[in-house]
Every structure is written in C-alpha cells, then in structure tokens.
Q: What sequence folds into this?
C-alpha cells in the first residue's frame, strides 16, 4: 500500500474524480486522444451519449460532430469495456480476435457455412472498397435471423457486425447512423506470453485512465469487462487484475481500497463552481457503485424501465454542481425549443451562484444542440 504525506479522504477522491475527467476543454482530436475511448449509445435524449460526453471536453463541440468528423479523426468503432469510439493504438492492442462472436452472442466457433459466407462477404467488400449493409443484403439475400433482443435482423447485417467484431472489417464512416464497412488490416497476434501480458496490462491501464479513481470492487468489475475487448484472453484477466493492483497508486479510505494511475496526485485538485448535466454514460457517473459511494444516493438509468415505474425519468441526466451530484434533469426539444425539468435529492440550492451556473449550462446545451 503506497503512503501519502496527506491522508487521502473520500472528499479528496470525489474532487479528484471530477477534476481529472472534466479537464479543460481542448480540440476534439486532443480530447479524444486524452481520453482514448468514448462510449457510444444510440438513444438521442436530447443527444447521443458520445456527443454528450464530448461536449464537456472539446471546444465548440456540437451534436453530431463526432459522426461528421469521424473519417478525419483517425479513430475506430469497436468494443472496449463497452462499445464506443477509440484510438487506433488502443484498438490494435485487442486484435486479432479469433473464434469470437459479438458479446451479446457469447463466444462460439463459427460453423463452416458461416465461415464461407464471411469469406465471400469479405471479398465483396474488398472489391468495392467500402459497402453499405443494404448493398450487401441486396447482393447476398441471406434472409433474416433472430437477434439477441428477440427481433429479426438481416442475416448479412448480423454477419457484418460479427466480422467487424473479429477485426475482419472496420467502420469507415456512418451515413444517417448506418455503418459503412471496409476491409480491415490489423497487425499480428502477440509473439509470446510476455507480449500478450503487456497488451493486457496496457488495456487495463487505459480503462483505469478513463474511469479512475476506482474502489477495489469497481476495479475488478472493470477488468472483467475487458472480456469484451479480448475474449481470446479472458482467462488471463484475473492475473491482470492482481498485476494492476501492484502498480497502481492506492489508498485505503473508510475500509475500502481505492486505485488510480500511479503518476497522479489524488490529494490536490481544484474545481470551478460549475453546473454540468452529464449523460448517464459519462465517466464521472458511469460506475453506479462508485456513484453511490461518492454522492450517497442511488442513480438508475430508466430508459428501459416501464414509464409508470420510473422515478427520475426516461433519460435523466445527473446534475453536477462543483463536485456534488445533487439531482437530475430531463431535457427535450419541442418545436425547436429546449424544455427542461429538474429533480433534487434534497432541495435545490438557493444561492444565486447556482441559478447563474444552471442557466449558463442550459445556454451551452442550446448552442450544442443548435436550438432556442
């Protein structure tokens, strides 16, 4: 256990978590490469998660900028601890993923028929340079399959997603949200066990860099989630967790062991008096166990909860005031105008500074969404 001149408290860790993640806004490329990975989610309420995450960290960011600028940013879509956008260097650590299917389907070996279809599809995409799923479906007409959620999906679209996960294809851009594919060329597998362990450790460090500081239980869960990134090495993640605990900075606070990058000082952080509305997938609030430890109440994402059972709202955005999540907001756009409703864990702060900062945050969101 590392020793610190200043006794680390939960207040230190909470301020540190907010300050290190919500860094001073920089260019979109700079923000992306500082984070390494941004989670994606298709729900737009009032914007997609990836846009809501980046608006706090990239200067003059507007909803849709990531999709529009994706080809120029030299980044990739892929699975990490969840699905999202990542740097090429991060993605390179994960591939090749042999004999692996998309996480929702679980690991399985492809039958000979599917392997043959995948090879034909790969040749089709290579000949064209890039391909829209509709073109692939029109050419092959493989019919429909039952997907993980119980609905029907085009079999070719399903196969494209599986080939993308294996690293056979990459996403070159999106057209109205639809993935456009091209053939992917990735590097070789690790040459030996030492290189493989080095890759896994680098992936663990990348995850910690995004979500630190982490209590021991949350760190363990984060490392387990790397089975989505490297299903071929999932059996080695338990040992990787133990190596991480040895090299990360750490402290025991209120009977709980916490971990963060070794080169960072968790005891000294300055925070502006700012209000921020965060997506449920923002790194600051992403881990629900840590959320409850920091802020003393249980936040629940309720988009998939029946409407009558929701307490907070369909897509309630955690409301951060300085280093405290004091409530939530629900935003919607009606006739080109932003409408907002707020709820508070205890009560709304009564000082004029909070009102000023909340109004400023709503103005920033209007600019981000290009609405009145």
A:
């Amino acid at each position: 256990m590392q020793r610190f001149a200043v006794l680390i408290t939960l207040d230190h860790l909470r301020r540190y978590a907010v300050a290190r993640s919500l860094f001073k806004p920089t260019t979109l490329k700079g923000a992306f490469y500082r984070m390494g990975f941004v989670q994606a989610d298709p729900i737009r309420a009032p914007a997609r998660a990836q846009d809501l995450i980046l608006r706090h960290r990239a200067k003059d960011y507007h909803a849709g900028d990531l999709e529009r600028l994706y080809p120029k940013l030299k980044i990739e879509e892929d699975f990490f601890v969840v699905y999202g956008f990542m740097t090429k260097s991060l993605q390179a650590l994960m591939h090749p993923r042999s004999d692996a299917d998309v996480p929702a389907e679980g690991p399985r070996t492809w039958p000979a028929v599917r392997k043959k279809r995948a090879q034909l599809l790969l040749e089709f995409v290579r000949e064209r340079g890039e391909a829209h799923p509709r073109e692939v479906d029109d050419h092959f007409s493989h019919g429909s399959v039952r997907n993980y959620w119980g609905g029907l999906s085009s079999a070719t679209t399903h196969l494209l997603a599986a080939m993308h996960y294996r690293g056979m294809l990459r996403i070159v851009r999106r057209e109205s949200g639809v993935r456009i594919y091209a053939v992917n060329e990735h590097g070789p597998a690790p040459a030996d066990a030492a290189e493989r362990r080095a890759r896994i450790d680098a992936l663990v460090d990348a995850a910690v860099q995004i979500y630190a500081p982490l209590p021991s239980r949350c760190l363990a869960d984060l490392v387990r989630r790397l089975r989505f990134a490297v299903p071929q090495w999932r059996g080695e993640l338990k040992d990787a967790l133990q190596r991480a605990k040895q090299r990360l900075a750490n402290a025991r606070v209120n009977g709980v062991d916490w971990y963060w990058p070794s080169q960072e000082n968790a005891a000294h952080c300055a925070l502006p008096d700012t209000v921020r509305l965060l997506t449920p997938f923002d790194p600051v609030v992403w881990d629900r166990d840590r959320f409850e430890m920091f802020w003393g109440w249980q936040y629940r994402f309720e988009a998939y909860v029946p409407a009558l059972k929701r307490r907070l709202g369909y897509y309630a955005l955690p409301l951060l005031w300085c280093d405290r999540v004091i409530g939530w907001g629900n935003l919607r756009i009606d006739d080109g105008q932003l409408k907002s409703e707020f709820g508070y864990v205890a009560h709304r702060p009564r000082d004029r500074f909070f009102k000023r900062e909340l109004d400023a945050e709503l103005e920033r969101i209007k600019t981000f969404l290009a609405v009145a």
Notes: The chain has 13 helices and 14 strands. The longest helix spans residues 193-211.
